[in-house]
Amino acid sequence: MQESSLNKLHLEDIKNPNHPSVFFNHVEYKILIYRLFENLDDILDVKSHSFVLDEDENIYSYNKENGQLSKMGDYNAFYDLLDSMVDKGMKKVEMNVEQIEELEENIYDDSDAIQTWFALKKEMVRIERILSQAIKTHSEFIKNSTIIQNDSKLLTGFEDIEEHLNRIFRSCSVNISKLDSIYSLYTTLASEKMNKTMFSLTVISAIFLPINLIVGFFGMNTEGLYFSGNPNGTIFVTTIMATILVSLSVIFFLKRKSFY
User: Fold this and answer.
1) Pairwise CA distance, residues 50 & 72, whole Å
2) Within a 10 A sphere around the Cβ of 54, how many other Cβ atoms?
3) DSSP states of 128-167 as a string?
């Protein structure tokens, strides 16, 4: 099969390196594009793989580097290629699930927890979106392939791939919900910590406010202040402030003890 036999718009689609998964059932041929996983590096790598099926349902793989359509051996080779890409996606999701479980255990101790959360959430949502389209495309391909429908062994194999895609998709959905729960827990703990800090600051302010008033009062540069002419005035004022401080501290701790 040559490029010239393809519709111009379909040719643009199979050349597009970022085209989403899709299945076109044309009168003279079928276009099949899978956007699936390429490797297992820290950064998720996704690639669009384009295939063309002629009237006899022979499968041609499109090489985006040299722009050539190459006939694949048989449907077993095509199955092995799809199975390999799906397995990479499954392993990537399993790696993310392990990170999510670790994040859940150390959410309050890890200083980079929120950055890890955002990275995992972004990646899992992206995988879920990719899988959603791939599942639909794969299902349409199976239904419209006479060769697969007439070969029970092939049908079982390609349905197994569909089951794997659905399993990964469900795992993504469950763990996205778990990430949302982890974020709610994180914000709750952060709010609780902030509330405790604000409560402590409020108590400290309440204790030292009367003392500040006394200091400010006796610090005025005016005549006739109490104890201004008394040689023991400083001792008296210090005693008054200490008494107020101790009294407020005792009241606070008694109320706190009765509260808890």
Assistant:
1) 12
2) 15
3) HHHHHHHHHHHHHHHHT-HHHHT-HHHHHHHHHHHHHHHH
Cβ atoms within 10 A of the Cβ of 1, count?
A: 18
Q: Could you give the strand order of the β-sheet that contains 45-53, starting from the edge strand earlier in sequence?
A: 22-25, 30-39, 45-53, 59-63, 68-71
CATH superfamily for domain 200-259: Magnesium transport protein CorA, transmembrane region (1.20.58.340)
Tokens read off for 236: 């008296």
Q: DSSP 3-state assignment of 6?
A: coil
Instruction: Give the span between the Cα atoms of 260 and 258, in whole angstroms.
Output: 6
Q: What is the pLDDT of residues 47-66, one digit of tens each?
A: 899 999 988 889 999 887 78
Residue 143: pLDDT band by 50, 70, 90 thresholds?
A: very high
Count of C-beta atoms within a 10 Å radius of residue 240: 16
State the fold for domain 3-193: Methane Monooxygenase Hydroxylase; Chain G, domain 1 (1.20.58)
